[in-house]
Design brief:
Helices cover 36% and strands 13% of the residues. By secondary structure, it is α+β, with helices and mostly antiparallel strands. It folds into two domains: 2-178, no CATH class; 190-377, no CATH class. It has a four-stranded antiparallel beta sheet. A four-stranded antiparallel beta sheet has the order 3-2-5-6, with helices on one face. Helix 3 packs antiparallel against helix 4 (146-160), helix 5 (193-201) crosses helix 12 (364-377) and helix 10 crosses helix 11. 36% of the residues are buried. The model is unreliable at 1-19 (pLDDT under 50).
């Protein structure tokens, strides 16, 4: 029994040490300690450290004493961080400060790690055509204990502000372009690869849905994609952890807080914010039985109705197609207008044989493609 427990401990320890070394979505944990995110085993592995003050009038640096960086890292070392998605923009560094840590000589490639006050860029989730990368970050778990990290960083900021120098070639934050590309495209269709990449770059693809691209998408996951797109439309630089806050802002803007707070379904103990939001604004409904059936695969005609209602939400124009699908008789009456609106607006196409197959499932990659088109149209 003791031998078995030792083997289990070794397996778990090995998983933790390797969990942040891969580049597939399934290999990146939701939470990890600060030092695991950095990939550093010991505080002694940090050879040099500096703090940089970024401002409109120019940047200034200061080298941090070993004693001070050790005290700083003691606060951070085992703190729990959680994965998040957010674009890396100029505002990330403008008029702020950040701390650089080197695990080797400064001229050694990839030896520098930058902490943006408390946050760490782990990798690139999508490269935007506008030069803005959507990144995978690790950020401190939200809570009062996070204040200790902020205070430790502020202490360094205040202490070294009077000891600054002009930056040299080794200063500046780490090159984000050299970070690993972490979008998992394994298993997607060849036609979908560039579309999924673009959706990820636009912050439209929740991390949880970057797998199983050829699987039929559930009603809950479809709602997750819909809410994500609408939230990004509301706030283009939204961090994924702030989705609930953005949803509440959209709800309160339309004075629907009471409706939002009182959405319930008999088969859901807890109604997620994305489903409650879409229900409150009239984009989705449940079944006559009072159920929502979140795990049921969404039918193509159901998807068409939801997307048509999103166009209505934004008062965006649609066009009704004149030609009919070969299986028009199989399309439910309640979805017919939406099906042909989405065809005419070039949002949802048929199956390639002239049919729509209204009762069939809608794959994850098809849903991602559809929401990217909607995002570009509305």
């Amino acid at each position: 029994m003791k031998k078995f427990l030792i083997i289990c401990i070794l397996i778990v320890a090995n998983f933790i040490s390797l969990s942040l070394t891969g580049n597939a979505a399934s290999e990146l944990p939701q939470t990890a300690s600060f030092h695991d995110v950095l990939g550093v085993d010991s505080i002694d592995d940090i050879k040099y450290a500096s703090i940089e003050y970024s401002g409109i009038s120019g940047d200034l640096c200061a080298d941090i004493d070993q004693k001070d960086i050790e005290a700083f890292l003691q606060v951070y070392w085992n703190f729990k961080y959680e994965r998040a998605l957010a674009p890396f923009t100029d505002s990330t560094v403008t008029d702020r400060f950040y701390i650089n840590l080197w695990t080797d000589e400064k001229n050694v490639a990839n030896s520098k790690h930058t902490i943006f006050v408390t946050d760490i860029v782990y990798g690139i989730y999508g490269k935007g055509e506008n030069g803005i990368n959507n990144c995978i970050w690790y950020k401190p778990v939200v809570g009062n204990s996070r204040n200790a990290l902020i205070m430790a960083a502020e202490d360094l900021k205040n202490k070294y502000k009077s000891q600054t120098r002009i930056p040299n070639e080794y200063d500046g934050y780490e090159d984000i372009e050299t970070k690993p590309e972490c979008l998992n495209l394994e298993g997607c269709s060849p036609w979908a690869e560039s579309i999924i990449s673009q959706a990820a770059a636009e912050n439209l693809l929740p991390y949880e849905l970057s797998v199983g691209y050829k699987d039929d998408i559930s009603r809950q996951s479809f709602c997750m994609l819909a809410a994500q797109m609408m939230a990004v439309k509301y706030n283009a630089n939204m961090e994924s952890r702030r989705l609930p806050t953005v949803i509440v802002s959209m709800i309160e803007e339309r004075q629907l807080r009471n409706e939002f707070d009182n959405i319930s379904y008999s088969d859901m103990e807890y109604v997620t914010d994305d489903i409650a939001f879409l229900a409150a604004v009239g984009i989705i409904t449940g079944y006559d039985t009072g159920e929502f059936k979140p795990e049921k695969n969404i039918a193509r005609e159901e998807a068409a109705v939801i997307i048509d209602r999103i166009f209505d939400y934004y008062n965006a124009a649609t066009m009704t197609a004149e030609s009919l699908y070969s299986d028009d008789g199989e399309i439910s009456e309640w979805s017919r207008q939406s099906v042909y609106d989405m065809l005419g607006t070039n949002i949802m196409q048929g199956m390639g044989d002239g049919s729509f197959s209204p009762k069939s499932g809608f794959t994850v990659e098809q849903a991602i493609t559809t929401f990217l088109r909607v995002y570009q149209k509305i």
